[in-house]
Every structure is written in C-alpha cells, then in structure tokens.
Amino acid sequence: MAAPLPPRAPRSPLLGLALSALLAAPACAGADWPALVPPPRAVASEVAPQLRVNGLSSRILHFTTELPTAEVLSYYQRLWSKGRPPQAVNAGEWQGLSSLQGEFQLTLQVKPGARGRGSEGMVSAGHLRDLRADFVPADWPQFADTQVLQVTESEDGPKRSVLLNLVSRASYGTNLQRWRGEWQRRGLTLSRETEVAGARPGERGWMALFDGAAESLELTVAEVDNGRSVSIMAHRLLPAARRP
C-alpha cells in the first residue's frame, strides 16, 4: 500500500462543508446582501465572503462566543423575528434556525464549544434568486445507489475548488473498488492511500489522493450508521477556466 496521508482534524457536519472552500466565486451582481451579525461576546471571521453551495450563492460567518447555545438561539430568534418567524433546524449535536428575509435565506447552526465552554457556530446567507437545480458537476460519476448531498464551489486565482459530500447504500468494499478504479480509468494517479478506523468500533475509513496533469482529488470513504451506509467526501481542484 502507498504511503499514508497525514492525519486530519475531524470535521463537523457544518464546518466541513465550508472550511475546505477556497476564496469566493463572484456572487450575484447587484445583490444587496444582508449583514451577517455575530452573537454578543463573540470572536467571528468570514469563512468565505462568497461561494456557491448547491448552486446557491452564499456567504458564511464562523464564530465562537462565551454565550451558551440556548442564549445564542434566543439572540437570533429575536434578531430575525421581523416577518415570518424563524424555523428550528437541528442536525445531531447542532441546533439552528432558518429565516427567510426577502430574497435571502439566513441560517444559524450552533453547538456547545470545546470542553463545554460557550458555543461555536456559523451564520450564513444564501441568495435564493440565484438557485440552480443542476448543481452537481456534469462530469461527476453517477451511481444509482449514491446521492450527492452537497456541492460547495469556489475559486482562488487559477484554481477552482469543488467539495462534494455524498452518501451511498453500496457496501464499503464496493465503494473502495468503484472510486479507486474510476479515477485511475480517467488517467489520474493514485499517489497516496490509507485505511483508518471509523468513528465507531467496527467501522472503517479510507483516504486517498489522486493526481493528474490538470487536476487533483482528495477522497474520503467511511462507514457510518454502524456500517449500514457509506459517507463520501471528495475535494477536487481544477483549473479555474474549466467548469466541471
């Protein structure tokens, strides 16, 4: 087996989709974007000023705050109370709110901070008028048992970053064979790969790096839900002029 990839810090369901993105692709021209306001007693920074998530032009602000999660939720409940009341959006350890403000969807996701101190989270805005139904890259492999959950796109100078999150009903072994072979058939070289332990006992994971003349791909395949499904994360770097 080739030399292993260096270890990575674990990614949250929320942050992993944004922190791997590079700088932004241009947003909708002339759009009057709402301000992304951090909660009180917070340290905040833009993850990316502009990017596309599932075809939707988006902006994201990450924050850490001394406030507990319940107070952060209450703060945004009051802040976004004009018009339609915010709706609860929860996923695992993350709690959140979603609010429609004109042409924009505002979303909060927050969870307890490290060692249970304060909170960390993200506030985002998505421009609904710019929504595209065909957000999956045209040349991305399609399998009947695999669903693309999210595509995050951005550009940085000559490079275009495409981050994809997928879930598959096929077995872990099938996915390893499928994805290893797919990119080698396309002419990419498997530079590094390693198998790692999964998040739960008995689950497995595989990380690989593929290199080509004009693109590279980092791929992670992991068993989840006690092996009943497989999670796939792919980070693809392409020339900016090439639209996948």
Q: How many domains is the backbone divided into? A: 2
H/E series: HEEHEEEEEEHEEEE
User: How large a portion of the residues is in β-strands, by DSSP E?
Assistant: 35-45%
Uncertain spans: 1-30
Main sheet record? 12 strands, antiparallel
Helix/strand-derived class? mainly beta
Could you tell me the radius of gyration in angstroms?
Answer: 19 Å
The backbone outline, from C-alpha atoms, is globular
The share of residues in helices is 10-25%
Report the span from N to C terminus. 30 Å
Q: Helical region count?
A: 3
- pLDDT averaged over residues: 82
Record field, number of beta strands: 12
Sheet with the most strands: spatial strand order: 3-4-5-6-2-1-7-8-12-11-10-9
Question: How would you summarize the topology of this molecule?
Answer:
Elements: H1 15-19, E1 42-53, E2 56-65, H2 69-79, E3 87-88, E4 95-101, E5 104-112, E6 119-127, E7 146-156, E8 159-168, H3 172-185, E9 189-197, E10 204-211, E11 216-224, E12 229-239
Antiparallel strand pairs: 1-2, 1-7, 2-6, 3-4, 4-5, 5-6, 7-8, 8-12, 9-10, 10-11, 11-12
